[in-house]
Design goal:
heterodimer; A: 110 residues; mainly beta; six-stranded mixed beta sheet; three-stranded antiparallel beta sheet; 0% helix; globular; B: 120 residues; four-stranded antiparallel beta sheet
């Protein structure tokens, strides 16, 4: 059971907008930044969003992040087939003195 | 460009030890916290351990605490993870990852991973 809770799956058709939620607690998301990672099939994870809503250079502006209270979310607009993969949220947790990840959300582009 | 290359994975028997290494290049290694994150076959990401830029602070997941030691050699730009009393549930791809200026700053770069299989 992951400390951060994500839906196991999400889906959408090309061009649609999809959101993935990440639920935590006062010891992690409410107090610290949230990071999002994309893992395409057979590859290492890649940073998608840092510090709640910042995009690294090279990440399309179709990807956006937000955080409020004990929850965060990742939105993907203009869905494309190459977006298919797994998405993970992560945050520092004060109670555990360590990093915690969500269980991951498998995104399917129909 | 940032490069993180893991090595040391392989097949090891339960109860034995394993040392993973990560060679870093393309950035000032001594200026960043570093982490190990693992992924069991078909499962999600699990943070394993983290170390501050100078090695003075170390953090571990409960699942490996007391059985693992993270360390770094800034003169060699190398990160290590020593794991002992290995269990079958330690079987995973182990990723080396770069953190920020401190251990609470998130991961921004990942290596390609090294597979450690614990099996008799």
């Amino acid at each position: 059971q992951s400390v951060l809770t994500q839906p196991p799956s999400a889906s959408g058709t090309p061009g649609q907008r999809v959101t993935i939620s990440c639920s935590g607690s006062s010891s992690n998301i409410e107090s610290y930044y949230v990071y999002w990672y994309q893992q395409l099939p057979g590859t290492a994870p890649k940073l998608l969003i840092y510090k709640n809503n910042q995009r690294p250079s090279g990440v399309p502006d179709r990807f956006s992040g937000s955080s409020s209270g004990t929850s965060a979310s990742l939105a993907i607009s203009g869905l494309r087939s190459e977006d298919e993969g797994d998405y993970y949220c992560a945050s520092w947790d004060d109670s555990l003195s360590g990093w915690v990840f969500g269980g991951g959300t498998k995104l399917t582009v129909l | 460009q940032v490069q993180l290359v893991e090595s040391g994975g392989g097949v090891v028997q339960p109860g034995r030890s394993l040392r993973l290494s990560c060679a870093a290049s393309g950035f000032t290694f001594s200026g960043y916290a570093m982490h190990w994150v693992r992924q069991a076959p078909g499962k999600g990401l699990e943070w394993v351990a983290g170390i501050s830029y100078d090695g003075s602070n170390k953090y571990y997941a409960d699942s490996v605490k007391g059985r693992s030691t993270i360390s770094r050699d800034n003169s060699k730009n190398t990160l290590y993870l020593q794991m002992s009393s290995l269990r079958t549930e330690d079987t995973a791809v182990y990723y080396c990852a770069r953190g920020g200026e401190d251990s609470r700053s998130g991961i921004d770069y990942w290596g390609q991973g090294t597979l450690a299989t614990v099996s008799s």
